[in-house]
Amino acid sequence: MGLFGKKKKAWDEGRIQENKAKMRALFEQVVEDAAGYQLVYAYSSSIKTSNYILARKTTYTYTSLIVGFREADMSIVILQTTPELEGCSDPEIFRKGEIKKAKVVQGGFTIYHKGGLMAGYTQFYISDEYDDDNLFAYMRQSEEAAQWDIFWPKFCK
């Protein structure tokens, strides 16, 4: 039991390692020189609000991501995937010299694209643990998240 009698979560390490292996396999399918990247599971979210006569409806959409990062050339590769890690999109590659800036905004890691006022940005979130099978892949990644926390400030400078 943990503090205040709360039971600590029992993690299925076999399932976690299987999901990490799936992430690596997907990443290696679409990224050149994939072995040089460290991987971390992340997600992005979008919020849509609809106003009706008497009510307001807010819809949250979550997207699972595989984020690869490499300190050698200060690059980040982002792939969209499914919570089941069954497939992925083409890679989005961000290199330190090819972006406008990077910073943390409202708890999310944000990369601003180069270009004019409307160039846009990419925002995502990284957590140590994901155990909601309906929204995210089953994942515990304390070490990977710690490595990301070391890499991100260097990427932002």
TrEMBL record:
This is Uncharacterized protein. It comes from the Bacteria.
